Amino acid sequence: xxxxTITCLRRPTIGEAWLAVAECILADGTPGSWDGKPLREIxxxxxxxxxxxxxDPIIARHADPERLAWMHANFTDHSRVAExxxxxxxxxxxxxxxxxxxxxxxxVVERIKADPATRNxxxxxxxxxxxxxxxPCVSLLDFWLAGDALQLGVYAHGIDxxxxxxxxxxxxAALQHHVADAVGAAVGTFTxxxxxxxxxxxxxxxxxxxCRAAR
Length: 215
Known about the structure:
Radius of gyration: 17 Å
Order of helices and strands: EHEEHHHHEEEHEH
Largest sheet: 7 strands, mixed
Strand content: 25-35%
Number of domains: 1
CATH superfamily: Thymidylate synthase/dCMP hydroxymethylase domain
CATH architecture: 2-Layer Sandwich
Helix content: 25-40%
Structural class: alpha/beta
CATH class: Alpha Beta
CATH topology: Thymidylate Synthase, Chain A
């Protein structure tokens, strides 16, 4: 069986990127399922965002504020996430890895400051000793400088680009800005590689309406 064709999309902003992936899924996605829930997906998607600003007019207009708030809490609150089976939040994974006191973001900042040419300021959110029933969707973050700009590469095994993926984009852009500020760099390109970019069947009509309204 042939490997899936890689879908590459490049857009100026995270809002345009969200809609571009959603439109691709709606047009070319194939049926699949996640934990028994039917969806449409494209496999092996690579998304490049040239100017990943956190405040995005498309997302501000079309996003669900509750979902934005939920994802923001996931990236900033060290409490366990009840909706994910009491799994550790991204905040814990990034700033207190495996609850050991290891601040991975501080480590990235110091590594880049010590060697601006480093190519292994790379961290993971996966905690294999405790992630036995839940594996975080965003699992790898890779930071590096190209000229005076901080680049961010992220890998995820699956992202819901219906009415939740935009919140991932916002929080990852915020993290890129945070590290860029800490190392005294401009914000460069954000590259997001996703194994399964999908929309659940229950949100297909909603996303069609959003995409039409945004044109």
